[in-house]
Specification:
Largest sheet: 6 strands, mixed
Strand content: 25-35%
Strand order of the largest sheet: 6-7-8-3-9-10
Number of helices: 8
Helix content: 25-40%
Low-confidence stretches: none
Bound molecules: adenosine-5'-diphosphate, magnesium ion
């Protein structure tokens, strides 16, 4: 039995709870994620996908319910402990890249390692290795504003991976990548998942990208409406199932 890495226990998130028009973005959602899981989240725009992964990964705090990471309730951890935990375990890839414009790509990728006591030689080596894997090694001396959207996204992914996280949390990581780079990234994720036991929780709107995962959660109106497991299906069969769910769910949007 694999270890539970992330547990969401009846998690609800309400935005603007003190206002006249509160929005329930996430409604009583539970999930147990085991070490080595590769889970994909899909659903219509505004259905709560980003809220879901943010609340599960210490980026945001639920209004109700509990989140446990490695068996520990996040709410009971102090700010330093959460920070340390993030640094040691999590690799975030956001929709916006959050690269610092005053730093070169090399320096940006180095940022998460600045907290560590890794030697500067090893930092350099790690950055070169990850930059090669993401095809940004020729951009290391450039600044973010000198790079294209796809290049910045790849640099942000390199920054997320340079700490060798145990759990990758990614919100539309291929949103700005061309199809060749998208598939390269997913092959890299798959290899990290298969060979290094890295767990992955990823939002995408692309069924093809989702077909690299082992499990799909379809979110609608802040709830998990469908769960599909890849099981013994080939990637192609799993892909067809994902397309079906998206198609059926989209068609329901036209029925009252
Ligand atoms: P998705 O990622 O699926 O597009 P989100 O999780 O971003 O959806 O948003 C879910 C719902 O919560 C939407 O109705 C959105 O408008 C609302 N929402 C998201 N973030 C905020 C916020 N900071 N304040 C108020 N409402 C928000
Ligand atoms: Mg989103």
């Amino acid at each position: 039995m694999s270890k539970e890495i992330l547990v969401a226990d009846h998690v609800t998130k309400v935005y603007g709870i003190e206002t006249k028009n509160p929005v329930t973005a996430l409604s009583d959602v539970s999930l147990t994620m085991y070490e080595g899981d590769f889970i994909c989240v899909m659903g219509p725009s505004g259905s709560g996908k980003s809220t879901f992964i943010n609340n599960l990964s210490t980026i945001d705090v639920p209004t109700k319910g509990k989140v446990f990471i490695n068996g520990k309730e996040v709410r009971t951890m102090g700010e330093n402990e959460v920070g340390r935990f993030r640094y040691e375990n999590l690799g975030f890839i956001f929709q916006e890249f959050n690269l610092l414009d005053s730093l070169t790509i090399f320096e940006n990728i180095a940022v998460p390692l600045s907290l560590s006591n890794i030697s500067s030689d090893e930092i350099k080596e790690r950055i070169l290795t990850v930059a090669k894997r993401l095809n940004v090694e020729f951009l290391l001396e450039k600044y973010p504003y000198e790079c294209s959207g796809g290049q910045r996204q790849r640099a942000a992914i390199a920054r997320a991976l340079v700490t060798k996280p145990k759990l990758i949390v990614a919100d539309e990581p291929t949103g700005n990548l061309d199809s060749a780079h998208s598939h390269e990234l997913l092959e890299l994720f798959k290899s990290l998942n298969d060979n290094d036991g890295v767990s992955i929780l990823m939002v995408t709107h692309d069924s093809m990208i989702a077909s690299y995962s082992q499990k799909l959660l379809y979110i609608k109106d802040g709830k998990i409406a469908e769960t599909i497991e890849r099981g013994d299906l080939s990637q192609k069969e799993y892909f067809y199932k994902i397309v079906d769910v998206n198609s059926v769910e989209s068609q329901k949007l036209f029925v009252d």
